């Protein structure tokens, strides 16, 4: 499954003067085209535009809400991460096929040998919780 990285940039606020673009709409479209082509050369694919609220301070105590127009781009990230670098508690549906899941890792755990350190003792099939028994001694309230 491909992994993506995202880039969010502010949309242009005004157009660029260019020969042949006579209306403000043409100038704005040209500015947006230039920005998108520049990012496209670096491998970024345009995903969508969003208008999001942004709370800003006005004076010492006042606040106002403005709306920011943002352009969202993404590109595929190479699978540089090996399966050894995956966190052990990562659910199976996020793991590449053929990598061991949490149940395979749990079966390799051994109970702790130190009195104050107790490890995993109950084993259950994946998707089922182990049954819990009575509390162990040693920590009883007096």
- Global shape: flat
Q: What is the succession of H and E elements? A: EHEEH
Radius of gyration: 28 Å
Mean pLDDT: 75
Q: Which stretches are poorly predicted, pLDDT < 50 over at least 5 residues?
A: 105-110, 112-122
Q: How large is the share of residues in beta strands?
A: 25-35%
Number of helices: 2
Can you count the beta strands? 3
Q: Structural class of the secondary elements?
A: alpha+beta
> Strand count, sense and closure of the main sheet?
3 strands, antiparallel
Oligomeric state of shown chains: single chain
Account of the protein in words:
The model is unreliable at 105-110 and 112-122 (pLDDT under 50). The chain has helices at residues 24-41, 102-106; strands spanning 3-10, 45-58, 62-77. It contains two helices and three strands; from the N terminus they run E-H-E-E-H. With 142 residues, the protein is of the alpha+beta class.
